[in-house]
Design brief:
With 256 residues, the chain is an alpha/beta fold. It has helices at 56-61, 79-82, 104-113, 178-184, 206-216, 233-237; strands at residues 2-7, 37-41, 47-50, 71-73, 98-102, 129-133, 140-142, 145-154, 157-164, 167-169, 189-193, 220-224, 244-246, 252-254. It has a 7-stranded mixed β-sheet.
């Protein structure tokens, strides 16, 4: 299984507009962060997109032109995680309904946000989606690949991460409940959010994220959904434990 970080930034991206902080003016490409999303390439040509933010168009321009997407898994309905769904049009050609896996509240939100995509007489060219409802800790399958939704709390919003094989992806968490920790304890690869060094009302800070990582004890953890308040990559990386790395856009991992 191969994982590609399409984006590793928070809702504002990095650099943030009108900001001259050390991270925003850094010349290191690892400090340029589009909105958070990953591509997971599984066996038998199954390619899963996790979240589809407003940078999706630009993220896919640098990927192979013939890359197929099999389905979209959505963690939650905030704009920085679904704002690029209209750009899934090229994957909906020839009457194909592109499969979306999400919780019921996410589906309701998207139907209200994109009514033109669900009209009885939709105009030509709109994206076509088929929704598949998922529930926390209830595994589902896409062409034989087991996916386990992982409950986490994004302040007061109950959202999900995903376990696929020996990898778990969690973003926008403020609290990771015991049942999720137990479901992924000792996993090979963990991707988890760490917004900044200081506390935040709805996202894990760097110290909080490191505490969760210590509980889960993966072979290696990668931090994502990073804001410009995190010091530049080269500085922050020196402060992390040996088995923890800052992820960055277009980083690719091979997961056993």
């Amino acid at each position: 299984m191969k994982l590609t970080f399409l984006g590793t930034g928070t809702s504002t991206g990095v650099p943030q507009l009108r900001c001259g902080c050390p991270t925003c003016i850094s010349s290191d490409h690892r400090d340029k962060r589009l909105r958070a999303s990953v591509l997971i390439e599984c066996a038998n040509g199954i390619n899963l997109l996790v979240d589809c933010g407003p940078d999706f168009y630009h993220q896919m321009l640098v990927m192979p032109r013939d890359l197929n997407l099999s389905a979209l898994l959505i963690t939650h309905q905030h704009y920085d995680h679904v704002g690029g769904m209209d750009d899934l049009r090229p994957y909906c050609k020839n009457g194909i309904d592109f499969p979306i896996y999400c919780q019921a509240d996410v589906e309701r939100n998207l139907r209200e946000r994109m009514p033109y995509a669900f009209a009885a007489k939709a105009y030509p060219g709109v994206p076509h989606f088929s929704f598949h409802t998922i529930s926390p800790l209830s595994p589902f399958y896409i062409d034989g690949i087991e996916i386990l939704p992982l409950p986490v709390n994004h302040y007061k919003l109950e959202i999900v991460g995903f376990r696929i094989g020996n990898m778990a992806y969690i973003t926008d968490a403020k609290h990771v409940p015991t049942e999720t920790i137990n479901a992924i304890k000792g996993i090979d690869t963990l991707v988890i959010n760490a917004l900044r060094p200081e506390p935040h009302i709805s996202h894990l800070s760097l110290p909080e994220s490191l505490n969760v990582i210590a509980e889960i004890a993966p072979r290696h953890a990668y931090l994502t959904h990073i804001s410009h308040d995190m010091p530049p990559y080269a500085e922050t990386q020196t402060l992390l434990p040996p088995a923890v790395s800052l992820a960055y856009d277009r980083l690719q991992l091979t997961i056993p």
